[in-house]
């Protein structure tokens, strides 16, 4: 009996810095739910949106292709418009699992006030790199996108003639996990 207790103590003692780090991270994660850093409490606005998109790639040859996508997003499920977005680009296949894209996008953003009528325009130039890997049966997609955005400024429901420039960098990590060998069965 004493030997079992010693084995348990040896296996679960916190002698390594790795074990102490894991324990500390678990403790911080558990305690963070109890700590409030913002006063007064946040106000939560509920919103139901409908968002649909069509994404396509047309291969021109082994290296070059054209990518295009269109998006429609509406608020209050489908009642009110939120935005409409079209994007297209030229894609270059560097390696079988790595490609680069350069393109343009245009967005029409619905007015934020119900008594306004004019949509705001946004022009974008974007660059992106996509790396696709397979780990076992899981397909991983890693994408980094850099966008230069020119956003039209609307004042009192009229275009002001002014534009705001912003640069945005976004990163996407996506995992696709098959649940069946049948390709028609949806994947996680």
Summarize the structure.
This protein has 188 residues and is mostly beta strands.
Q: Care to describe what's here?
A:
Mean pLDDT is 87; it is low at 5-10. It is built from two helices and seven strands; from the N terminus they run ααβββββββ. It has helices at 2-11, 17-32, and strands spanning 49-59, 64-75, 80-95, 98-109, 120-135, 138-155, 158-176. The protein is 14% helix and 55% strand. The protein is extended. By secondary structure, the protein is mostly beta strands. A seven-stranded antiparallel β-sheet has the order 1-2-3-4-5-6-7, with no helix packed on it.
Features:
single chain; 188 residues; mainly beta; seven-stranded antiparallel sheet; 2 helices
Number of helices: 2
Structural class: mainly beta
Helix content: 10-25%
State the order of secondary-structure elements, H for helix, E for strand: HHEEEEEEE
Write down the Rg.
25 Å
Q: Span from first to last CA?
A: 47 Å
Sheet-strand content, in percent, reads: over 45%
Task: List the strand order in the largest sheet.
Answer: 1-2-3-4-5-6-7
Kindly state the mean pLDDT as a whole number? 87
Task: State the major sheet.
Answer: 7 strands, antiparallel
The stretches of 5 or more residues where confidence is low (pLDDT under 50) are 5-10
Compute the number of strand runs: 7
Shape: extended
């Amino acid at each position: 009996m004493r030997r079992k207790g010693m084995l348990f103590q040896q296996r679960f003692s916190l002698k390594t810095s790795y074990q102490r780090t894991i324990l500390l991270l678990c403790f911080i994660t558990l305690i963070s739910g109890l700590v409030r850093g913002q006063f007064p409490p946040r106000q939560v606005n509920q919103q139901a949106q409908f968002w649909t998109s069509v994404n396509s790639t047309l291969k021109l040859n082994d290296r070059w292709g054209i990518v295009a996508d269109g998006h429609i997003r509406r608020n209050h499920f489908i009642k009110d418009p939120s935005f409409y977005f079209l994007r297209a680009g030229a894609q270059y296949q560097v390696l079988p699992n790595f490609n680069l894209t350069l393109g343009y996008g245009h967005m029409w953003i619905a007015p934020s006030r119900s008594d306004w009528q004019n949509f705001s325009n946004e022009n974008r130039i974007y660059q992106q790199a996509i790396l696709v890997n397979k780990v076992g049966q899981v397909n991983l997609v890693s994408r980094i996108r850099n966008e230069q955005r020119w956003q039209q400024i609307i004042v009192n429901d009229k275009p002001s003639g002014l534009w705001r420039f912003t640069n945005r960098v976004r990163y996407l990590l996506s995992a696709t996990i098959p649940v069946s060998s049948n390709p028609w069965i949806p994947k996680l």
